[in-house]
Amino acid sequence: MSKNKLINILIVEDDIEDCNIMKNYINTREDVKLIGIANSTTKALEYIKTHVPDAIILDLELNDGEGSGLEILEEIKNTQTDIKPIIVITTNISSKTVYTYAHKNGADLIFHKLKNDYSPELVIKNILLLNKTRETNRITNNVKCEETINDYRNRISDRINRELNLVGISSHLIGRKYIHDAIMYILENNQDKENVFLYLAKAYKKGNSTIGRSIQTAIEHAWRKSSIEDLQKYYTAAVNYNTGVPTPTELIYYYVDKIKKTM
Q: Half-sphere exposure of residue 243, counting CA atoms within 13 Å on the CB side?
């Protein structure tokens, strides 16, 4: 993570007043960014799945929502990802048993809301400190440069695959591989040194038209098989009214822009 990159934060909280206080404070800062607010387990896990936050401010009690913060901790713990978000719990609960359980399941810090020194500033300050520690550990870790680059590429590749899975672009279609590689190529070559379809044609020794048809087939297959609700939720760009599906270029650059925002 570069020094200039904002830390993306998700708030999981059902108390509207507490939400607004934390949100208003985050909005005054230039080093963190609020990417969403969830008041239930379902909404929180959906945000985590689609936006991959760097940090989560998590309330254990979701009385006005649904579920609990402990359920969310368990789901995050069981998620197979290389990088876990920083998790800071804010709660009115003062049970040592609950605190121990939360720490064992991935909570980094716990703040009791009723303590005199509790404040949004304290929470954000500690998130920044934890993030700085993680970054320092990565830099000082005795890992070869090639492996570090590979870790980065694998993380981006996993994100691309998650996004394509959400709209049902099937992995058994060759067009899925072309879409993945096109997105990866553009993300790694900001200046887009050559047309992405030309790059794919060279890489796979196929004609441009063959590459384009394969991608279009994968897109049309997904738009036929996936539910309208999922498509509207996970692919928010406008789609041509006449065709009902995005073009290969539209879909590729939609995901390039979406993933860039969280890099």
A: 12
